[in-house]
Write a structure and sequence with these properties.
CATH class: Alpha Beta
Number of helices: 3
Number of strands: 5
CATH architecture: 2-Layer Sandwich
Radius of gyration: 13 Å
CATH topology: Transcription Regulator spoIIAA
Shape: globular
CATH superfamily: STAS domain
Order of helices and strands: EEEHEHEH
Distance between the termini: 12 Å
Structural class: alpha/beta
Amino acid sequence: MLLRTRTDRRVRIEQWPVPAGSPTLAKLAVVGVLDGESVTELCDATATVMAGGTRHLRLDLSGVTSCDNAGLYTLLGVQSALRSMSGSLVLVRPSLCVHAGLRAARLHLRLVIAPPGSVM
């Protein structure tokens, strides 16, 4: 079930429902290009859910079609922001390009990635 969609020409951030009784959890999905030109959408969506009390974020990256280092390092920044509030970030179902980029930049050692087959 789609709650809200933010769009620009390159990326779409979707917010998905969370189970009742999980007021500090949010689920977002990134669809499209995650790069230096589009990371503002992810940052804005993250700031919005954090302002609403979210401390734990599950980020589905299965719909990312292309990414660059700016997009990948933005994930590290999101994780840092959440951790500063005693929260967490878990990357769920990274697409092949995200997975390859994370490994190439060795960010897979610094970010939490849900095991294969995990769902939002």
